Automatic annotation (TrEMBL), chains A, B:
SUPFAM superfamilies: FAH
Signal peptide limits: none
Pfam families hit by this protein: FAA_hydro_N_2, FAA_hydrolase
InterPro entries: FAA_hydro_N, Fumarylacetoacetase-like_C, Fumarylacetoacetase_C_sf
UniProt source species: Ramlibacter agri
Keyword vocabulary terms for this entry: Hydrolase
Protein name per UniProt: Fumarylacetoacetate hydrolase family protein
């Protein structure tokens, strides 16, 4: 099943079902006004949404219309929590090697995760308004999951059973803030403005065998200003989403609609490129003694897409960085 | 004006106005169903709530009833963001001295802040369910503000103009996780379970001259298991709430209803005690070479109250730590 949220007068948007080929959509507000409400009542909502999805794919949904990704908000524009892991250790290892950072203790046995702001998540084609190019504007291509409610201190196995939807994310990062925020020990804050989401959230069955070991085993194709930048695969996560969820829930409940991110997708070996500029700069630093690729300027564009059976799964993130209005 | 949120079928609770002496309440759902909705529409809601507040104080509000803090949820049980500063440098300095931690770079010129989970904020008298005493369970007494929408990159002066309400907070902390999470650079996550809030949020005029330089200049009286633990004053914040808000909004908008915390209230000189156990342990470590006061056990109780003109301003936090149900 594929679901999306169209922009509306409500901050939560309005729920639609999207056809498997992403071409058509059908209003689903008779099931739930928005995706968050559907997740809060999933046992009731899921079979009704599934029935509508089957009608839509069969060309039999009344009032169906063309799906326009430009009109899509993030699947959950204001989510209960946005907990972003850093589960591809290859990425962290490259950064540490390039910039002489000390290794993170226990990183191979315990997931890394920070809490992101979750009240203003952006749509796939929304501009990225940011205050200053000097902040080191970067994209980060990620996969994520949206969970049902998760009890405190639950096991990875139980956590896996609470995964409802898969998503694709651009976790925008401002690299000028990161080193200072890491040194303080308080973690990322100014370094992490609003994240953006591909237009469509999908149930795991929509990617068949590519949903494996609680990992999205798809290539995430990244283009920066129209040029190939990388297409790393999600299968190399050192921790599965089951483990990331259990980590997040160790000392707290997670509300239905909480989003858990994988961190920048990153593959060992160097042939798959990178899903963020900082990692390419790290590779350049290691190879040549200095980074070469510049961070994003206003007007720069990023495109992110993951395909299964030669079709985009989540739709496409296509965004441009712009200067935020001065206050 | 004093406002509270009573528990209801809605996760956002229902809005009531509370009398200045905290004894009576009046339903305010004809103005807005909950406090978050009131903040999202403050220009319209504020004068109507103020009128109701004046009627209530005059004993003329129709349908008024006794206010019961036991029935209060957090003022905003699921808030857009919970951004917690650490603005009392005395606290950080004590911790660093006691435990030989390196000083935090720029801490005197740039606020420290982490992002907390904001989807499950607890009421003043709610039990604190936690999984394990071995996690080093601690309270932290704080003040906070609730803001209207704040634009990205706004000045401290403009930030000050967006403060709508003051709150009093128990920022529960699990000390066993803190050092590792600080070392990773990703910041606090498992160390920060749900925070709790005193039952009543108040407009700044409710504390007269004690709202000064964007600081809540009140003693915060802390009792641990019925014994005095501290009564540090909020005036010694090294950064005002105006600066904390501007820091939080440097690279992001803040949605109306975002909560900004002061961090543990802490005063220099040692006579005012502490607002958290970790700080008392630091003082013991410095004085005697070892900490003596134990962290909280299941069944332990904490009480927090701030008075102005000899009356509690926000009501009282009175909580007990309990074992979370096993999953």
């Amino acid at each position: 099943m594929k679901l999306a949220t169209l922009k509306s007068d409500s901050k939560d948007g309005r729920l639609v079902v999207v056809s498997r080929d992403l071409k058509r959509a059908a209003d689903a507000t008779q099931v739930a006004p928005n995706l968050l409400a559907a997740l809060e009542n999933w046992a009731t909502a899921e079979p009704r949404l599934q029935a509508l999805y089957e009608q839509l794919n069969a060309g039999k949904a009344q009032g169906a219309f063309d799906f326009d990704a430009q009109q899509a908000a993030a699947p959950i524009p204001r989510a209960p929590q946005w907990c972003d892991g850093s589960a591809f250790l290859n990425h962290g290892n490259l950064m540490q090697t390039a910039f002489n950072m000390p290794p993170i203790p226990d990183a191979e046995t315990m997931p890394l995760m920070y809490q992101g702001g979750s009240d203003d998540l952006l749509g796939a084609c929304d501009d990225l308004p940011l205050p200053d190019e000097a902040h080191g504007i970067d994209f980060e291509g990620e996969f994520g999951v949206i969970v049902d409610s998760v009890p405190m201190a639950c096991s990875p196995a139980k956590a896996a059973s609470r995964i409802r939807l898969l998503v694709q994310i651009n976790d925008v990062s401002l690299r000028a803030f990161g080193p200072r925020e890491m040194k303080t020990g308080f973690g990322f804050f100014q370094a992490k403005p609003s994240s953006s989401f591909a237009p469509v959230a999908v149930t795991p069955d929509e990617i068949g065998e590519a949903w494996k070991n609680a990992r999205v085993c798809l290539d995430l194709a990244i283009e920066f200003n129209g040029q190939w930048f990388g297409d790393p695969n999600g299968r190399e996560m050192n921790f599965g989403f089951d483990q990331l969820i259990a980590h997040a829930a160790t000392t707290r409940k997670l509300s239905a609609g909480t989003i858990i991110g994988s961190g920048t997708v990153s593959n060992a070996g160097g042939k798959k490129g990178s899903a963020c500029i900082a990692e390419r700069r790290a590779i350049e630093q290691i190879a040549n003694g200095a980074p070469k690729t510049a961070f994003m300027k206003f007007g720069d564009r990023v495109r992110m897409e993951a395909r299964w059976q030669d079709q985009p799964v989540f739709g496409t993130i296509e965004q441009r960085v712009v200067q935020a209005p001065k206050e």
